[in-house]
Amino acid sequence: MTIKLNNQVNLHIIPTNKYKTVRIVVRFATPLDAITSSKRSLLASLMETNSLNFPDQVALSKKLAELYGAGFYVSVNRTGNQHYLSIGLNVINDNIAPNGVSILEDSVEFLKEIIFNPNIKNNAFDTETFAREKENLIVDIESIFDDKQTYAAMSLQNLFFSDNKNQKTPSFGDINQIKQETPESIAEYYTHMIAHDKIDILVSGNVEEGYVERCFKNFGFVDREEMETDLFYKQPFKNIIQQKSEVLPVVQSKLNIGYHCDVYYHDDMYFPLMVFNGLFGGFPHSKLFLNVREKHSLAYYASSSIDPFRGFISVQTGIDSSNRERVLRLVNEQLKNMTAGEFSDELLEQTKKMLINQYLLSSDNQRSVVEQYYLFSNIPYADLPQEEWMSKMNAVTKEDVQDVATGINLQAVYFMEGGK
Q: How much is the pTM?
């Protein structure tokens, strides 16, 4: 059930008795931009730490304890051409709360405090809080360099989207931009976000729809203009392969490979794309795992993943530096074998069954259900009944997978060589 609270402000109610908790997410969406991604990342840290009436983390924690140990978070992420700042709260159902207390009403008031009363005075965030959270965020981002697998994935993304600053910048922004921000600049951006972002409020749990609507009826948002941004980022294929190598102090070298793909979320060939990825590198029975890692013992790990909102397929491997060319050649051979249909009917059926099992498991996960509902609100044609989804998956043929593989082309190669 979706209720329009204001123009571009929607309340989505997802009643279910599957869970003992109620999950509330307030999501701010805006067109993806490298500079504002940095601002939103810092703003999320500030909003998660305190507010005007909960001026420190002790006061904030005390309030969450009064909500019977509610789980609270503020995070940023992105999908395609859109950037999200999400404020979430997990609380127990009213029907198991003691003394007839309305946890939902108290939770809505808490969220109103966090959203509409940040720790801003005289048009600036509290200086002490700002300095601490800015430093913490910079340290967190710098620590990514220590996680070489994540660093390699980010480096491949930087190569693949080399012509688009917005796409190659991580969802948490750019460290140099964050260093330039001030208590005044983030307070100014907060005001802009509250007034202009598209808002979706999602409530999942054992709730009564009319009661939820009453709780949020006068939440506080005002009308805003429609966001005219296509969710999908479609980058044209380039004949030039982007490549980068660097030597870093790691024992295990990393070879990450990026492929261009013109198949996107829930278009005609989306189901064959999922099956392709499962056979190529998504599961333990995939070609990358069995041939690159097991048969030839050339990789400590080898897998693939798809980003169906940006036409991006990535392969991640951990290898000995001396095996770089052999691994690159062998990975590309697996793609050619997929194009030629060199996979058995048994593996095809096994992959479809595993994807169906993943789908059914996600329908039992409250977080996944909320995220799917949000996605379907933006892409209504993707909201398929369970039987239809499974039917489409079972209908995928070997020829469909070959057709998908034919349209996948090498676009970027990043190599992290282990050294002193």
A: 0.93
